[in-house]
Amino acid sequence: MAAAVGIARRVAAEVRRDVAAARDRDPSARGVSAVEIVATWPGVHALLSHRLAHALYENDVPVLPRGLATLTRALTGIEIHPAAEIGEGLFIDHGAGVVIGETAKIGDNVTLYQGVTLGGTGFVTGKRHPTVQDNVTIGSGAKLLGPITVGHGAKVGANTVVITDVPPNTTVVGNPGHPVRVEGRAPEGPDTDWIHLPDPVAEAIEGLAGRIAALEQRVLGAPNGNGAKATEPAKPLRADKGRDPAGG
Prior knowledge:
alpha/beta
């Protein structure tokens, strides 16, 4: 009897944390009752189902954990392997297309948006999925692949592909992901400002374009041998003589 009461209290505490996470990080949940969130939020459904499936998996119950995970995927569009380890306060927003692999580990207060994949690479055994530490935010469509570690407080931009470790308090964008520090430190906790993320590739291209423009100005303004600016147009290259290499 005491064991059953303990399990009931633990489940109730987990439900309260899931509801609190949804209210804190989903604007559409403000003012919505706890009953409605539990009844209609697919991310909450997926987490509750996973906790049950994980407990069954840890106790070596056959078939049922994977069957429960498959049913949850069909109902919510969120696939979580029963062996995945998930901490407290995970919030999955919308959730469609989210995949969390077998050896993935997720810390506390993590936020995932739709289309996120915590996947493996190749057919290796052992630890082959990402470890996501506390207070990490992962944007829509991001793919984190392999046994990498995403550090505390990191932020992964939408559609970013991450295949290497991410340092703590770092923003990562691009494909493959490029670490970019925001004012030396990423904002703590969930941050949904995906519009103003730095783009290191665009910045590099902009720098190259500026360098080319400066070199063009120097060439156009360069003096010739008589001290006057070169005004004669460039001569076309002399045509090659001999047989046409194209066979004409």
